[in-house]
């Protein structure tokens, strides 16, 4: 691996300019200390001081193919030499090919692709399509969800980041999805959780009026909110409810799609086809901003003779599409989705369960593929979270100490609320997975000191 020659002065200069001029997402600008990154390759990135980190966060769960994949870098360079930009109204080879490759992999008849620059715009447009298709306005989404930070997407989001921005609910109604570990329905097993969650959704629909509801949007496997794999039958049950009431079913696969769960799409685990599927992140590992909506034949037909009143200057951007084509082809040629399934099932899942046995701070382990969460608690019996459920939960205290311990051990973790997510690239090797899990194991000793047992 080529790493950059350490140069602390260069790092200090980058940081000084950053603090002078860059306004960061989700942050109190005066309290942050961003790491100046000098380079990256595969599952690792490094700073200017010579510290290398194993990226168990895949940045924001997007570098499914790892950093600097040579085929994707070459495809972007080649496309830049041919045609850097083109308005969405034209047809061009890379855009057509990216759409074909995506449509071939999405479930069922989701064969038309509307391109966006990222996940939130995909959600915005999916909701708009559903409203125009049905002529209805309300949209139902789950409390434990994240759908993006633009106007409709942040309103649809259930997690606490919605609260400061939720000035107009814009027809959004939240409901509880299934989550046995912290069951909103006081269920005792997955079957009961599934049955009660579906009954609760039916009640919500009946109360709101089915004829007013345009769409139900769900993350197939909710990601940022805690990687909660739905119980068997839940998504099929939601599909049946949507069909019965003429409601558009939107699955948000911005985080779970493109190999993350060990299938091309998480919906493949459950045999469910939505009417609209949103994607971004893993479609090209985020090398160039790209997202989109995969659209069913029926919804696409709504806009056959009637214009779709939406668009973006950079929709189907040639550099983004070239990187998507190269990413999808490399994932297929190098069996990267299969790798995610295999490493997840054989190495990460079993090892995380063994780690949970050893540490009083690990309340639950859940996930699939390279998409796992550890729920950190003060007490395994009461399941009291290591930090309270509030918006500032992960910013300080025990979780921050745990994250710092990971970083000292050369591991870059994904920490949110009282959870750490294990979300390495889908390309992660067995040796890398074991290296990261050993660092995680060591860092959890810090979390243990904050438990009632510690
Ligand atoms: N939907 C889901 C499920 C996500 O996880 C995210 C981002 O994490 C988004 C939408 C928003 O995507 P973006 O940040 O690209 O706008």
From TrEMBL:
Protein name in UniProt: Aspartate aminotransferase family protein
Domain of life: Bacteria
InterPro entries xref list: Aminotrans_3 (IPR005814), Aminotrans_3_PPA_site (IPR049704), PyrdxlP-dep_Trfase (IPR015424), PyrdxlP-dep_Trfase_major (IPR015421), PyrdxlP-dep_Trfase_small (IPR015422)
Signal peptide interval: none
Matching PROSITE patterns: AA_TRANSFER_CLASS_3
Family affiliation: Belongs to the class-III pyridoxal-phosphate-dependent aminotransferase family.
Coiled coil: none
UniProt GO MF annotations: transaminase activity
Swiss-Prot/TrEMBL keywords: Aminotransferase, Pyridoxal phosphate, Transferase
